[in-house]
Write a structure and sequence with these properties.
two-stranded antiparallel ribbon; 59% helix; mainly alpha; 14 helices
């Protein structure tokens, strides 16, 4: 079981402000109450490694960016997202929807999570076209779905491992086991189920992964979008650097994300401090906490060793 140090206690006004910020990142898109219906389990059990890993909003943000960078290296995934989303015109709403979908997948009551995933699969059925290089794509192509699932798992796992706490081989194995049935619901029937399979997929995909100006446009949008309050906005670029840093070195080189996207020593200390604080701060609005309440567990269930 993952270990978490003592819970952070903050002054009331600051605590409420941070909790309000966490809530605002989800609720403008869609109101979703993770605390009901009472006692309905999620797709993943509350004592899973996934529940403890996904509770950390800092590492989830970093890992999500890492996953997108890997996805955008694959032209069919890249253009499928870029040509069929509102990311350029309304990046915050797009981020909120994506973040909420991830939280519902892990923490939401099983019936609602399955319904949401089925809706995603239906919407993806309409996403088809040609890349800028003229190659056809379809969002529900199992090969592309496997890549998306693999990159998401890689991003979230490596972000937690690098900035929160090192994961054991057993914990990494549990994450693959927990993700597998969910991946199949999304249609990713060949998604990696072990570290060896993930390594093999990365190796086989290397010839297809290419640089693109869209990668830099994405990072610029993420740096400027109103994700954090104005005074804290510069932190977004630092978190983006943290996401770049956990890419495989060959991938960073191929995408052209090298020196300018490296954390300096002070930035690294800042990221580590924020990520570790995210492991110790119990916010009532977090899906993890709301879902513990749904199952009759204490708010601090996931924050104790």
């Amino acid at each position: 079981m993952l270990f978490a140090p003592d819970i952070i206690t903050l002054p009331g006004p600051l605590y409420r402000q941070i909790d309000s910020l966490a809530l605002s990142l989800l609720q403008p898109v869609q109101t979703f109450d993770f605390s009901v219906p009472a006692l309905e389990p999620a797709l993943v059990s509350a004592d899973s490694v996934s529940w403890r890993l996904f509770k950390n909003p800092v590492s989830v943000f970093i890992g999500g960016v890492t996953a997108v960078l890997l996805e955008f290296a694959e032209p069919r995934v890249r253009d499928g997202v870029w040509q069929h989303s509102t990311f350029r015109s309304d990046p915050l709403t797009r981020l909120q929807r994506t973040g909420l979908a991830a939280m519902v997948t892990i923490y939401g009551p099983r019936s609602k999570a399955k319904a949401m995933i089925a809706g995603v699969v239906r919407r993806h059925e309409r996403v088809a076209g040609q890349t800028s290089e003229g190659e056809p794509y379809h969002a529900n192509d199992p090969v592309l779905l496997d890549w998306v699932q693999a990159t998401a798992g890689f991003g979230f796992t490596e972000a937690y491992h690098a900035y929160v706490r090192e994961l054991t081989a057993g914990e990494r194995g549990s994450l693959f086991t927990e993700a597998s049935p969910i991946a199949r619901l999304y249609g990713a029937v060949g998604a990696p189920e072990s570290q060896q399979e993930l390594d093999a997929l990365f190796e086989s995909m290397q010839p297809r992964l290419v640089p693109s100006p869209i990668v830099f446009e994405f990072l610029d949008i993420m740096a400027q979008a109103p994700i954090l309050p104005g005074p804290a906005r510069p932190l977004q670029r630092i978190l983006l650097k943290a996401a770049v840093e956990i890419l495989p070195p060959w991938m960073r080189e191929r995408l052209g994300l090298e020196a300018a996207w490296s954390l300096d020593p002070v930035e690294r200390i800042l990221v580590l401090g924020i990520a570790k604080a995210g492991e110790r701060l119990v916010l009532p609005s977090l899906p993890a906490v709301q879902s513990c309440r749904r199952l009759g567990l204490s708010d601090t269930f996931l924050y104790q060793g």
